[in-house]
Every structure is written in C-alpha cells, then in structure tokens.
Amino acid sequence: MKRISEAEMGGKQAETSNPRDRGSSIWCLLVLVIGALVVTAAALTILKYLHFSKNNEAHPINKKYADALELALQFFDVQKSGKLVDNRIPWRGDSGLQDGSEENLDLSKGMYDAGDAIKFGFPMAFTATVLSWSILEYGDQMNAVKQLGYAYNCLRWITDYLINSHPSENVLYFQVGDPGLDHKCWERPETMTERRPVTQVNTSFPGTEVAAETAAALASASLVFKENDPDYSSSLLTHARQLFTFADTYRASYSISIPQVQGFYNSTGYGDELLWAASWLYHATRDDSYLRYVTELNGQRFANMEITTWFSWDDKLAGTQVLLSRIIFFGAKDMPTVENLDLQMYRKTAELVMCGLLPDSPTATSRRTDGGLIWITEWNPLQHAVASAFLAVLYSDYMLTSQTETLYCSGNSYKPDDLRNFAISQ
Q: What stretches pass through the bilayer (predicted)?
C-alpha cells in the first residue's frame, strides 16, 4: 500500500520527519487488545442492521486476550487527569484540577498523552472514536469478561472533557499545557506546578481536522450512550453537529493556523476528518445530508477512491472506507442510485486495503518485517499493525454477518478467515 500525496491541504500530504508526528500511545494499546480479543471470539455480535445492535448471547473468550484487555483499560486509568473516582491505580492521584480555569472552563478531565502531562485533543478525540467503534461492535465480548463498564468509564472520561472544551459553537480548546516546557521537566502530574495554558481553534484561527475529529468522537459516543443515558447522548450529538458545521464552514488546517502544533501532532490534511466525521454523524442521526456529504458532495474531492492508505490518528480514510462499507453490507437496499454507487466505491477501496494486508494476495504490501509484521514507520511502529488488524477484523465480521463468502484480490479469492488470520498474526 502507498501513502498518498496531495498539494491541497484538504487532502493528505507527505509524512513529516518529526517523531511525535507519528503516533499516539493512548489509543494504540487499547485497539491492539480489542483486536486480539475479537479475533479469538467464537461468534459474532454484529447484526444485519445499519444501526449498531447488541446480541445478548455470551461467547467463549480466550483468557489471555481478556487479561490483556483488562490491563489495557487500566492503562487508560493511568493516563487520567482530574479528580479520580473509583481509582484502580494506587499510585495515581488527583491532578490537573485547575486546567482551563484561566478561561473559566473545567478541563480537568481527559487523558494525558503518554509519559508527559499534556492533553492533546486531536489524538485524544481519535482515541474516543476508535474506543466507541470497538464498544459498538464488540461490547458483548467486553461484557463477557466484565470489562464493558470500565470501557464506558474510560470513554466518558474523555467525552466529558471534550464537551467542556467546546464552550460555544465556533470555539474548541484542543490543548492543555505547554509541550516545550512540560517535556523539559520529569515529574508526576500530581505535583506539577508549571503554568498550563490552553489553546483553542476558532473562526480567526480555524482547525478543521481537530474540530471534525472531535465531532466524530462525540457522534460515535452518542451511539454508545444512546440506550443507557439518552440525555447525555443527545448532548454529545448536539456538540458533534455544531463542531462539524464549524469544521466544514471554516476550512483550514490547525497546523497552519497554529504553527506550534507542527512539532507534536502535525496534521497532513483535513479532508479525511471531514469524511470520517460526516460518516459517524450519518450513523448517529440517519440524516441523509451527511450521507450526501461523503458521496456526491465531497467524495471525489477528499476520498481518494481506489488509493489505499494507512489508518491512524492522522489519516482516517481507510477507517472511513470500512465504516461506509458497513452501509453497503447491511443497509443500502433502498438507497438512491447515485449515493449507492459512491458507497460502492468506498467499499471497493476498502477491499483494496484488505487485499493489501493479506500476505498471499497479489497486491500484498511489501511494507512488512521478515516475520510478517506491518512496518511503516520507525517511531511507534506498532500503530499501523494494530490499526490494520482492527480494520481486518471488522471487515471479516462484516463479511461473515452479511454472508459474503469471498473477497477477490486481482483474481484470487479469500475468505473472512483469511482476514482474521492476518489480524491474529499481527
């Protein structure tokens, strides 16, 4: 598979060389163990509907992966900021309690990025989106090993923060702390004393990708909480709609509007986040305007059909293609022809992504180690292997649940189990 390059900032550009541009430790570990958990599950929980449904039947789970999931969710507890509730980590305490106070906001929650005490909103929002997707598709497996409640808690710890970071329709606070200062000081967040400034995007300094990713996070989370907490779900969806409108109306990369972010989570374009957010808003609302947005209105401009990419915190195209393929698998029967054809192109591109991952495919990517591990970058190299395994598991389950028996790759045929075996290998 290849990384696309496009001059327009709306599209994805070439990767930068700064190590911190390459990945977020917060989301990688969770997706890894969720992928491992679901690839060993004995049966599916995905049902044949456009909306996300649950199957209450319990299925056997491989214990070693269940243990890994438990540890991963504890990792999220380790990263928490704020006044901790039901704290499971004895050596963590309250921290960041005054975050946002200089702007009369409560930004005390959320999660620190890695070993530092910075809250980077762009990768944190992506973490919430992927966690929501995982809960929606595989919540039954999490529940079977008594981890679903912890997953809900981790997700809400982030979404509470994201709601508070959006005090008005066209303002989003996306960072807490000074990364340059923070990275010069090795300290526990419980005892930090340095000033913690907050940074925002607004109509004068827009940030389409961070606003759109936050919209995706809140829209997907609204589905997670829809049944158990409808009022909270409605609030999440209201913020998601507003943030998407803000992101789309004031199109500009936050890496250009606020150049200092380039040294940490630099964005290579915002078109993928717009499609990703609109896709989640369609699933959350069934509002056809969001479907038209990703098909006839912006598909040709931003989707880069039939060009494969690597799913990550910076590039959402492959994830969008798999997510929109879900509609073709389960809900496109009565859809208008134009939109159906465009969605078929998303599915075709998703199939190209899957064919690139399968090691025996004629179009298999050569970007692997000798042992078969997907290897794209030296910094945080597991992020792409993890994300690829996650998408492969999802696509395999979509095929199985829709009784789609075969994936064709340049004339060769593959079964859902081939995708699952690839995911296990990673």
A: 26-50
